Amino acid sequence: DTQDTVKQRLLEKDRKHLWHHMSVHSDDPMIFVSGEGCWLTDIDGNRYFDAMSGLWCVNIGHGRKEMAAAAAKQMELLAYVPLSHSHVPAIELASKISGWLGGEYRIFFSNSGSDANEVAFKIARQYYDQIGQPNRYKFISRHRAYHGNSMGALGATGQAQRKFKYEPLGTGFQHVPPPYCYRCPFGKSTDSCRMECAGIYDQVIQWEGPETVAGLIVEPVITGGGMIVPPPGYLKKVKEICDKHGVLLIVDEVICGFGRSGEKFGHCNYGVGPDIVTMAKGLTSAYAPLSATAVRADLYDSFRERSGTDHFRHVNTFGGNPLSCAVALKNMEILEDEKLIQASGELGRRLSERLLGLSAHRTVGDIRTFGFAAGIELVEDKETKRPASAENVAKVIESCKQRGLLIGKNGDTVPGYANVLTLAPPFVTTPEEVDWMASTLEIALNTLPAGDESFLTGQKRHSEFDGECTA
Ligand code: PMP
User: What is the pLDDT of residues 34-71, one digit of tens each?
Assistant: First the structure.
C-alpha cells in the first residue's frame, strides 16, 4: 500500500469510529505519528512546532527515551496495587511534591485535573463538617476560569458556553468577575484601580454568609480562559480575604504548575501559601495520566483519626498507580537536572520581548504573558476593543499551521470572545525558535484583511467613524 492509501484508510476509520474531543478537528484531522522535542511529525512526514505543548502539558518535550525507560521498568516490576496499600513510587512522589511545595502537605492522587479539583471540593466540605461547621459548602470561582469537565469541576468553571445542555451541575458554586485589566469588569483603569476584582470576594462572602462558604478556587492566572493575568498583589489580597473569613484557598495549578510560570508553581510568583493545591498535566508532562490534590497537613489531621464510614470516602482505581508515579518522578527529575524551570522563565522573558514587537499591529489589542505562556488578544478595532471575529482568529491559526507552527486559542468563554491566541511551548524550545514563533505570528497577522486603514496606527480618527460597531 502506498502511504497515501494507508492514510486514507486511517482517515476513513477515524471518521467512522473516533469521537474527537473538539469537534472542529474531526473532519480532516492531522494524524501524528511521532514527536521529538518541540516537533511533531504527521503521517505525511510534515513537521510542526507544538507551540501549545499539546494542551499546555508536554513541558519537557516529546519523545523522551528516559520517560519510556522509567515507564517500562516500573511496569515490569509492579504495574498495580491500589493506594489503600502503598508502593514505592507513590511514597517517593508524594514526598517530592511536598518538597516542591515547600510546606507540610499530604498528597491525594487521582487521574485528571478534573478529578483533582473534585477531590479538593470534597475534602474541603468534609473538613468543615468534621470541625463542626457543616454549613460551609459553597465555593467561589471566577467567570472565564476553567476547572474541569466533571459535574463539580464544571460547576466551578466560569464559562457558560461549556455548561449549557449539561445542567444541573454540581451546586454551590458562585462566580465573581475575573481580574481582567484589559476589559476591567469594574470599569477601572490602571490609575483608578483599587483592586476591586480582589475586594469583590470580601463582599460576596459577606453576602453569601461566611458560615456557608468552604473555599475559593483560583488559577494563579486564568490560562485556558484567555490568559488573564491579575494585577500584582491580587492573589495576596485574595488570601487575606480567605483568612479573614476562615475560607480555604484552593489553587488550581493544573496548567501553571511544574514550571510553566518560571517557578515550580504559579502561586510561588505571588508569595502565597494555598490551603489546597491541585495539579495534573505538567506533573507527568502528559506521558501518563496522573493528578494530585495537595492538602495542608493540619487539614489532613482532622481526617487522620477517622475510620469506617467517617474517613474520606473517595476511591480512585487508577489514581496514583505505580506506572504514572514513576513517570512523574522521572519528569520532575528531568525538570531539575536540566534546569528546565529556569529555562522556562528565561524563554518566557524572551517571548514577552519578541511579542512586544507585535503590540502596534492593528489587530493586537493586548498581549499578556506569564512565565513561558502568552495570550494575544485580537481585536477588530483597537479603540472599541471589539473582539476579532472567529473567522479571522481561525485564519491566523491556519496561516501559522501552514508555516509549521501549531498555536492555540481560548475556548468560547462568552459568545464572540474566542479571540485570544495562546502559546505555551515546551521548555526545551531554543531562543531561535522563540524568535521564529514571534515572526511567524507576525506574518500570519499580516494575512488578515486590512479592514479600515485608519486603524493601522492603532489610533482611530473620530472624524472617519461613520457607523456603529456590530460585534
Ligand atoms: N484545571 C485547569 C486550569 C485546566 O486547564 C484543566 C484542563 N484544561 C483542568 C483543570 C482539567 O484537567 P483535565 O482535563 O485533566 O481533567
Answer: 999 999 999 999 999 999 999 999 999 999 999 999 99
The CATH code of the domain at 31-63+340-455 is: 3.90.1150.10
Q: What is the pLDDT of residues 229-244, one digit of tens each?
A: 999 999 999 999 999 9
The reply to whether ligand 1 has any atom less than 6 angstroms from the CB of 114 is: yes
> Is residue 224 within 6 Å of ligand 1 at its C-beta?
yes
Cα 57 to ligand 1 centroid, rounded to whole Å: 10
Which ligand 1 atom minimizes the distance to the CA of 115?
16
- Contact call for residues 255 and 301 (beta carbons, < 8 A): no
pLDDT for position 403: 98
Domain spans of the chain, in order of start: 31-63+340-455, 65-337
pTM above 0.90, yes or no: yes
> End-to-end distance of the chain based on CA atoms, in angstroms?
50
Rg (CA), the chain: 23
The response to whether residue 255 sits with its C-beta less than 6 Å from ligand 1 reads yes
Per the structure block, which three cell numbers stand in for 368? 499578556
pLDDT value, residue 466: 31
Q: Ligand 1 centre from 162 Cα, in Å? A: 13
Q: Determine whether the shortest distance from the Cβ of 277 to ligand 1 is under 6 A.
A: no
Report the CATH number of the 65-337 domain.
3.40.640.10
**Residue 148 in contact with ligand 1 by CB distance below 6 A:** yes
H or E element in which residue 353 lies = helix 340-356
φ/ψ region of 458 (left if φ > 0, alpha if ψ in -120 to 50, else beta) reads left
Q: Categorize the per-residue pLDDT at 309 as very low, low, confident or very high, splitting at 50, 70 and 90.
A: confident
Interface predicted TM-score (ipTM) of this complex, two decimals: 0.99
